[in-house]
């Protein structure tokens, strides 16, 4: 293919924009700010699960304390009734002995239950404090996640701005290039994944960093300036300038 060598040199500006756009796309795919959001979400989920566990534990204990209080009440009422019957007097001695016996056993039972209740209340206090710290932890995690999302969104917006700028510059650079040369460039760019042309600098292809020698160098040297020559290694259009070392 033939193309005016000034037009060929315009491909370098296009290639610069494509390099910039490729780097921007890579940064968008590997954004550390996005990984930070994922990590923050994971921490938040773990803390939310811990909060559910703490809430369940606290609720269970609360229920148990209530049940225990009910048990203590039953024993206390029974003892009061027995006491009143004793105080009312007029009971046969055998019944007084039996009531006295029952009152002793109720007193022991009440004391046992109160001990258990006390222990439960201590556990409940610990569970409530664990619950409060789980709530606080989750709130902090939510704030961390929101901050991480803000940072990620800022980074994405910055990347979008830069991408729009380079896309505009690329369109401007492409505008002056004849269609056949531009479509060849684009075809090669699809194959390399980055650019379709590279500067030949000091006999080295700046696309793949391979230095030309021997027959290939001789062919490039003797080629017409308006002939489109390509790197045998990477396939890019080799753009020749005064720096090419030919
Ligand atoms: Zn090359």
From TrEMBL:
The keyword Transport does not apply. Residues 205-238 form the C4-type zinc ribbon domain. Pfam families: CT398_CC (PF24481), Zn_ribbon_9 (PF02591). The keyword Transcription regulation does not apply. Keywords: Coiled coil. Gene3D superfamilies: 1.10.287.1490. Residues 14-193 form the CT398-like coiled coil hairpin domain. Residues 44-172 form a coiled coil. InterPro entries: CT398_CC_hairpin (IPR056003), Oxidative_Scav/Glycosyltrans (IPR052376), Zf-RING_7 (IPR003743). This is C4-type zinc ribbon domain-containing protein. It comes from Petropleomorpha daqingensis.
């Amino acid at each position: 293919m033939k193309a005016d060598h000034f037009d060929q040199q315009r491909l370098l500006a296009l290639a610069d924009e494509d390099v910039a756009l490729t780097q921007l796309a890579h940064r968008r795919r590997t954004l550390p700010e996005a990984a930070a959001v994922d990590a923050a979400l994971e921490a938040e989920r773990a803390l939310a699960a811990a909060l559910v566990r703490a809430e369940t534990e606290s609720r269970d204990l609360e229920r148990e304390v209530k049940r225990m209080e009910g048990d203590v009440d039953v024993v206390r009422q029974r003892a009061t009734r027995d006491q009143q019957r004793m105080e009312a007097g007029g009971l046969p001695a055998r019944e007084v002995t039996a009531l006295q016996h029952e009152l002793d056993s109720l007193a022991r039972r009440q004391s046992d239950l109160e001990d258990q209740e006390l222990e439960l209340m201590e556990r409940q206090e610990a569970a409530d404090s664990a619950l409060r710290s789980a709530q606080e932890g989750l709130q902090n995690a939510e704030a961390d996640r929101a901050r991480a999302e803000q940072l990620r969104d800022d980074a994405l917006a910055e990347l979008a701005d830069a991408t729009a700028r380079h896309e505009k510059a690329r369109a401007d650079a492409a505008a002056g290039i004849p269609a056949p040369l531009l479509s060849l460039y684009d075809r090669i760019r699809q194959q390399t994944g980055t650019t379709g042309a590279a500067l030949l600098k000091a006999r080295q292809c700046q696309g793949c960093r391979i230095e030309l020698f021997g027959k290939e160098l001789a062919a490039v040297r003797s080629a017409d300036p308006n002939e489109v020559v390509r790197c045998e290694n990477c396939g890019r259009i080799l753009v020749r300038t005064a720096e090419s070392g030919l």
